[in-house]
From TrEMBL, chain C:
Gene3D superfamilies: 1.20.1270.370, 3.40.50.11890, 3.40.50.11900. This is 2-hydroxyglutaryl-CoA dehydratase. It comes from Desulfotomaculum copahuensis. It holds the Pfam family HGD-D. GO terms for molecular function: hydro-lyase activity; iron-sulfur cluster binding; metal ion binding.
Length: 260, 409, 365
């Protein structure tokens, strides 16, 4: 039996996925890595293999993706756009548009039935519409990023955040707080701001249904809800959105070595 | 206690509303009434030689004015987003983005968008953007595009430049004659030029009345009341409107009425208005007794056409407008305004949408401050895209600036 | 003039000039005071005819932040102004601006050099009156340049300059024909050198280098064939990354690349009229208008002629003319079945984000 590894070294976290010949996800691991993506990835791979009782020789192929992809000793490095497309279509065969919001960037990808990329767009050099934006806003609101989803669910209204610049948006949030606007409503506004940025991005690739949403930010119910409202349709969201690119990388590794 | 009212509204605003409503109503249904009369509809830039069009019974529509409307009604961000989703960079001019967004999403657009044009006329005397914008429109609508190329004037306007523009105007006339199937009658052109000149003269007079202390108008008034000089230039309607406005402003001067009660500081404004903040932003000043008595922007419509050969005078006037002139020219213009209007300070809107207006502002600010000793403030914003406007930083700067004035005046 | 090329590898001479970025001129070519210029619509022939060397001013890599331009102005303008304010261009005899975009217009207005010239070519290039105006504007510029330099403008010298520039353009054309078979960063650097070193020496070195380059030409192989279009690329970073990612730039429409050299001046025409006519017929930059679809037609034809599999439209952040055309050209090329990537870059050195985009784009092909 041959196994395949996908390694996704992102700006903040490193993700590893292990699949078998049938494309079944056997194990996954996620760890915050900061600047030490390569070391973390090697460590995670080691741990995964040990956990599954596999030898390095049983891995028939490894593909690296994410910002740190060039640093990792893989058989091949593939952009996270191709990997994300592949992973998501594997999970949701009906998906034709994939939205991915990660820590530093957001992407909209139009995909073909087999998981190939037809077109894509990425955010410009600015944190609005990314996980980083949410982090900054969460800090200003003195809550954790994980709490944002629950807070947004409790919103009665939606306080508009109009600035596109993260720094200015932060000062907007602070002045809303100073005016005693309910925290929940501000959070809903923050989520809507991310959603509207990303919807505009999606518009550039001509989004087709079904639309799937992944990346770390897809865990945030507030953004999921805001994005569903903006796009006017329910989104397909994987149970484990952090590792879909790593899964895609493993799938690419499998097809590269001829195992399908 | 009720808050003291510091701002005096103009009665003419009612007539303005009616005038503009009528214009946009006629424009909106121009496709119905214009076609049987063989009156084509043109989208034109604010610096296009509209007298020629009017004389040939072509009805002009101004996307830039429409952009300002989108800004004032605060729908520009939505429209800009629609254009951005279609591949237009968020760094491009927000009038252009809002205008293209309005074509893509008429459901979001004020008045359902502008009526489809039969032709496009662009003149690059205000910026290079209008060339690219109108090229995009020409592709979208697949209608003839007429370009008037008015070379940037580095020092004095040279004869070979005038000759070039004049030749193009002759070509434009020929092209429009073919398109309309009409001949341009010199008398018709002369009549439009006279009406243009009369409205421009009145507009200039109205601006001049603000030399009085206290000033009868604040620049936001000029921003609101400039609409007819833009969209109705060359018509009797514009002349009638500005006669009425002139009378009211003159009356204010006679009665010693101030636009901003208790006028303490007289300011000069540089650049296009911040349309979505027209009252809130300027209120930051008026609440402290600061009145904008003049500006460089609405003065762009106060330059009359020289007598002589009508086409040559059109060539000269449209090439020599201030946005097509050197930094030296613009410094001189501001220094003169500061002297003529007894200005205590100036505020420059660093407008992300308008590079030719804005990129040289810091240099102009330094030179004007050096020459006049009057302080100048630079505020970064955008004319229509509220998404780049940062309330708190702007408020802080304005406050600090007014505190400086307090100490110097 | 050509003594250096006799004992040194001509390719090395050219690469040295390309790497200097222009700032190294006083060290590389002591004893000559070049005349700096912006934009490829600046007529180099006029400078040469007055006994000066034209030097294209490209944004230096480590420039500061100039106070007199806002952050929403493109980096090439900001970096050049910062260098100018830091007196890094004091070795120049003067600076010339050809009016192109709003930003260049503004930069010319605040440029810190005593001898700054602005010359305004027509925007619409296709009419007789544009030709007449263009020639008059060139005449006026030539006169002013000569007055400032304190020399007589001389038609014979101008004709010689035209011949030299034509020779350079023909050689650059031969280099461009070899482009698909040569490493892309090498071709980009050789083209850039032609704007950064004495022109006669450039012609001699390039002429000497071409036979060896032709021998070295090895074919595209498995590489993805790309067309690159854009404005200024002051270093080879993008070309290096594309080669790393397994691509080859088989066609180039950048302002500092082949577009700068495209087209010849008719040597039998009156020189100023000939210079004007060359600009009018040259593949246009987005700031010029030949006819509505001229630039898009050119790009599509170029992509087809060189069998490009994809097109990368490089837009420098805050460059309005190229951003406008990227929208239109993107639509047009995609409709014609040519995949397009619009790549926004602040500097010309691509980083991680650009790598991801380029790689994903190549994976899509």
């Amino acid at each position: 039996m041959a196994y395949y590894l996908g390694v996704d070294i992102g700006s903040l976290t490193t993700k590893v996925a292990l699949i078998d010949q049938g494309g079944m996800l056997l194990a996954r691991a996620v760890r915050r890595s900061g600047y030490h993506g390569r070391e973390t990835a090697l460590q995670l791979v080691d741990e995964l293999l040990r956990e599954k009782g596999l030898m390095a020789g049983q891995i028939a192929g490894t593909v690296a993706t994410g910002y740190g992809r060039v640093t990792f000793p893989a058989d091949r490095e593939v952009s996270e756009i191709s990997c994300q497309a592949r992973g998501m279509v594997h999970l949701f065969p009906g998906a034709r548009t994939v939205i991915d919001i990660g820590g530093q960037d957001s992407k909209a990808i139009r995909v073909l039935p087999g998981g190939r990329v037809a077109d894509f767009a990425m955010n410009d050099k600015c944190a609005a519409g990314t996980g980083r934006f949410l982090e900054v806003m969460a800090q200003a609101l003195e809550v954790t990023v994980a709490e944002l989803g629950a807070l947004a669910a409790g919103a009665k209204g939606r306080c508009p955040i109009s600035s596109v610049c993260t720094v200015f948006a932060e000062s907007e949030v602070i002045s809303h707080l100073a005016q005693d606007t309910p925290r929940e409503d501000i959070v809903a506004g923050v989520c809507a701001a991310v959603a509207s940025r990303v919807t505009s991005l999606a518009g550039r690739v001509g989004p087709e249904p079904e639309v799937a949403f992944t990346g770390g930010v897809a865990r945030n119910r507030g953004v999921v809800h805001a994005l569903e409202t903006e796009l006017g349709r329910p989104l397909l969201v994987p149970a484990d959105p952090e590792v879909t690119a790593a899964l895609g990388a493993a799938l690419v590794a499998r097809s590269l070595t001829g195992g399908s | 206690m009720a808050k003291e009212r510091r701002y005096l509204p103009l009665r003419s605003t009612r007539y303005l509303g009616r005038t503009m409503q009528r214009y946009y109503l006629l424009t909106r249904y121009q496709r119905l009434w214009g076609r049987p009369l063989k009156r084509p509809l043109a989208w034109v830039t604010s610096g296009a030689p509209v007298e020629i069009l009017r004389a040939l019974r072509i009805d002009p529509v101004y996307p830039e004015n429409y952009g300002a409307i989108c800004g004032a009604r605060r729908v520009a961000p939505e429209l800009c987003r629609a254009a951005e989703a279609a591949g237009y960079s968020p760094d491009l001019c927000s009038y252009a983005r809002a205008g293209i967004g309005a074509i893509l999403r008429p459901d979001l657009a004020p008045m359902g968008g502008l009526p489809r044009p039969d032709l496009l006329v662009t003149c690059n005397n205000i910026c290079g953007t209008v060339l690219k914008w109108y090229e995009a429109l020409a592709r979208r609508f697949n209608v003839p595009l007429f370009i008037l190329d008015t070379p940037f004037v580095t020092g004095e306007l040279k004869q070979h430049t005038v000759d070039y523009v004049l030749e193009q105007l002759r070509g434009l006339v020929g092209g429009l004659e073919r398109l309309t199937g009409r001949r341009l009658k010199p008398a018709d052109l002369q009549k439009c030029i006279s009406l243009s000149n009369e409205a421009v003269r009145l507009w200039g007079e109205i601006r001049n009345l603000c030399r009085h202390r206290p000033s009868p108008l604040n620049t936001p008034d000029l921003f609101v009341h400039m609409a007819p000089i833009v969209v109705l230039r060359g018509t009797a309607g514009a002349v009638a409107y500005y006669r009425r406005l002139y009378d009211e402003v003159k009356e204010r001067v006679r009665a010693g009425q101030a636009a901003v009660a208790g006028e303490r500081y007289r300011l000069l404004w540089d650049n296009i208005a911040i349309w979505y903040q027209l009252f809130r932003f300027y209120h930051l000043f008026s609440e402290r007794g600061a009145c904008f008595v003049t500006d460089t922007y609405t003065g762009g419509w106060a330059a009359g056409l020289a007598p002589g050969d009508p086409l040559e005078s059109l060539a000269r006037t449209y090439t020599a407008i201030f946005l097509n002139r050197s930094v030296d020219f613009r410094v001189r213009q501001m220094v003169d305004l500061i002297r003529d209007y007894e200005v205590d300070g100036f505020v420059m809107h660093s407008n992300r949408s308008c590079k030719p207006y804005s990129l040289v502002q810091e240099e102009i600010r330094r030179r004007v401050m050096n020459e006049t000793g009057v302080p100048g403030l630079l505020v970064e914003a955008d004319m229509t895209d509220a998404r780049v406007y940062a309330e708190e930083p702007v408020r802080n700067r304005v406050q600090a600036f007014l505190e400086t004035l307090e100490m110097t005046v | 003039m050509t003594t250096a090329s006799a004992d040194r590898d001509p390719v090395m001479i050219l690469l040295e000039a390309a790497a200097s970025g222009g700032a190294g001129w006083p060290q590389l070519y002591p004893g000559s005071r070049p005349f700096g210029y912006f934009c490829s619509y600046w007529p180099e022939e006029l400078i040469l005819s007055l006994g000066r060397e034209p030097l294209r001013l490209l944004p230096p890599a480590a420039a500061g932040v100039p106070a007199r331009l806002p952050a929403y102005c493109c980096l090439p303008a900001r970096a050049c102004l910062a260098a100018g304010e830091a007196k890094e261009y004091d070795f120049l005899a003067g600076a010339g601006f050809a009016h192109t975009c709003d930003t260049i217009q503004c930069l010319a207005g605040i440029w810190p050099h005593r001898h700054t010239f602005m010359f305004v070519p027509p925007v619409t290039m296709d009419s007789p009156e544009a030709g007449t105006y263009f020639k008059a504007e060139l005449e006026r510029l030539w006169r002013r340049l000569a007055e400032t330099a304190g020399v007589q403008s001389d038609a014979h010298q101008l004709q010689r300059a035209v011949v030299l520039m034509n020779r350079i353009r023909s050689l650059a054309g031969q280099l461009d024909e070899l482009r698909p078979q040569l490493p892309s960063p090498l071709v980009a650097a050789l083209m850039r050198a032609g704007q950064l070193m004495p022109r006669a020496a450039y012609a001699a070195s390039l002429e000497a280098a071409l036979p060896a380059l032709a021998v070295k030409a090895d074919g595209v192989g498995e590489r993805r064939r790309l067309l690159i279009s854009g404005s200024i690329l002051e270093n080879d970073g993008l070309y290096v990354m594309l080669e790393e990612l397994g691509a080859r730039v088989v066609a180039d429409d950048t302002c500092t690349g082949y577009r700068h050299f495209a087209g010849l001046v008719n040597e039998r025409a009156e020189p100023l009229a000939g210079i004007a006519a060359r600009y009018a017929a040259r593949p246009p930059c987005p700031c010029r208008h030949q006819y509505l679809e001229a630039r898009l037609d050119y790009l599509l034809a170029l992509a087809r002629r060189r069998s490009a599999e994809g097109v990368v439209l490089v837009v420098r952040k805050y460059c309005d003319p190229h951003a406008w055309d990227a929208a239109a050209a993107g639509d047009r090329l995609r409709e014609a079945g040519v995949p397009v990537l619009v790549l926004e870059m602040e500097t010309s050195t691509p980083g991680g984000q650009e790598r991801t985009r380029l790689q994903a784009f190549l994976e899509c092909l």
